[in-house]
Fold this sequence. Notes:
Blueprint (H helix, E strand, L loop, with lengths): L1 E2 L2 H21 L6 E7 L3 H17 L2 E7 L5 H13 L5 E4 L9 H7 L11 H8 L8 H12 L8 E5 L6 H9 L8 E5 L6 H5 L4 E4 L16 E5 L3 E4 L7 E4 L4 H4 L3 E4 L6 H20 L1
Amino acid sequence: MTILDGNKISKDIKDEIAEEVIQIKSKGEKVPHLAAVLVGTDGASMTYVNSKVKDCEMVGFGSTLIDLPEETTEEKLLEIIQDLNTNDDIDGFIVQLPLPKHINEQKVLMAINPDKDVDGFHPVNVGKMTLDLPAFISATPFGILELLERYQIQTSGKHVVVIGRSHIVGRPMSILMSQKRKAGNATVTIAHSRTTNLENLTRQADIIIAALGIPEFLTGDMVKDGVTIVDVGITRIPDETKKRGYRLAGDVHFESVSPKAAYITPVPGGVGPMTRAMLLKNTLLARKRRN
Ligand code: NAD
């Protein structure tokens, strides 16, 4: 069994990006600049945004954190997005989700200039991704592709079962894996909450991408020997033995699945750090495309 080490691969990617930033600087050009908008004080969102800003510093990007109070109106947020859309200093920006209930998430995502939409959530980017045109691929699916590629996992002709059909993970993942690409050309089954006899599908799968958000859902009896497992799930489970009061659990029961797996991502240290690295990669891409 080989661990698909997201910490190591994401570090490689960040080192490559940092090297490119040095090149950009040496030519006297402007370095990539990412802005992140956070509305409210949700603990997980604050952690995510802060780590994204820290990642920017690590590779030499510019970064701006726009920290707004919970009661910010939708109108005000849309105004800020318009400013970011036209601000020449900003190459790409993200609006951290989820947003407070009084703000229409769809409306906000639609307002982002697709050329600066480094999260790849705008319909223009989703459409281009679906048609296999140059686009911003959202960071989690992009990170999974990169991880599979760098470990040279054979995907062509393989049966991939994606569990989950969300717009940010399951759905794009299923599309990307079926396309003609290095980590692609697979036969894809997409499973969701209404799927019956899921274990019949997962037992046939050569590769399983679990993105449903139910901790330790996929167990050893549901997979065949030699399977490749990508565990996207991250759930905080209350745990008083931990200093921070919780532990992180994936969607895969690692103890029972890993002995049967050829390759498996751990949680933490698998898909999570890859997602962070690919946001940087998209920001670098945004900078290059604007040049
Ligand atoms: P979501 O809640 O939007 O979607 C969950 C999907 O799972 C739905 O499509 C639903 O139909 C499906 N599902 C629910 N119960 C099921 C069942 N019993 N059998 C089969 N399918 C079922 O979730 P999401 O935003 O895609 O996130 C999924 C998980 O991945 C969460 O734990 C989230 O925290 C994590 N996540 C991690 C990263 C990362 O960078 N590692 C990024 C995004 C999401």
